[in-house]
Amino acid sequence: MPKTLKRATTVLALAALTWMITSGLLSILAAAQAVDGSRFRPEDSDSPVIVWFLVLGVVQMALCVVTRAGRNWARVAVTVSAGFVSLIVLITVIAAVVGYLDATEHATVVGGEVQVSGLGIVLVVIDVVVLAGTVLGIAGLYRSSVNAYFAEIRRPHLGSGEDRTLT
Question: Smallest Cα–Cα separation from 44: which of 26, 54, 32?
Fold first, then answer.
C-alpha cells in the first residue's frame, strides 16, 4: 500500500472525527445562543441533525478503513462522503461569517458592541482546517501511485474472470 493512500485515508478519517466533534459543539453553541443567554436545555438542540452528522462521520471513517484494504468502490464512496462533508463544512463556515458580518453591521448602526464567542471562532477556524484537510485527502486518493495500487489489486481479479469466460 502506498504511503500516499495511508496518509490520505488518515487525513480523511481525522477530518471526519474532527468534523463530528465541531459540528456537535457548534450546534450546542447555536442552541445556547438561540435561548438568548439563558441556560441551555437539551430539548432546545436539534438532535436529529447531530445524529445524522455523527452517522455520516462514522460512515466516512469506516470507508477510509475499507479503502485501505484496496476496495475501489470504497474509494469512490469515501470521495462522495467527503465531498458531502466538505459541502456542509463550507456552508457552516459561510453561515458563520455572514452571521458575524450581519451582527457587525447591526452593531455599527445601533452603536453597540459585537460580542463574539471565542469558542465559536475557534470552531470555525477548525472547520476551515477540516475543509482543507478533506480536499487534500480527496486529492491524495487519486494520485498516480494510489491509482497504480488500485489497478494492481484489480488486475488479478480481472484476469481470473477472463479465464473463466474463455473456457
Answer: 32
C-beta atoms surrounding 80 within 10 Å: 12
The pTM (predicted TM-score) of the whole model is: 0.69
Rounded to the nearest 10°, the torsion over CA 44, 48, 54, 55 is: 170
Residues 129-134: contacts with CB under 8 Å, at least 24 apart: 129/18, 130/15, 130/18, 130/19, 130/22, 130/89, 131/86, 131/89, 131/90, 131/93, 133/11, 133/12, 133/14, 133/15, 133/18, 134/11, 134/12, 134/15, 134/82, 134/85, 134/86, 134/89
In the chain, the amino acid numbered 153 is I
Distances from the Cα of 71 to the Cαs of 6, 8, 68, 94, in angstroms?
A: 14, 15, 7, 34
Residue 66 in contact with residue 74, Cβ under 8 Å?
yes
pLDDT, tens digit, 9 for 90 and up, residues 44-79: 445 666 777 778 888 888 888 888 888 889 889 999
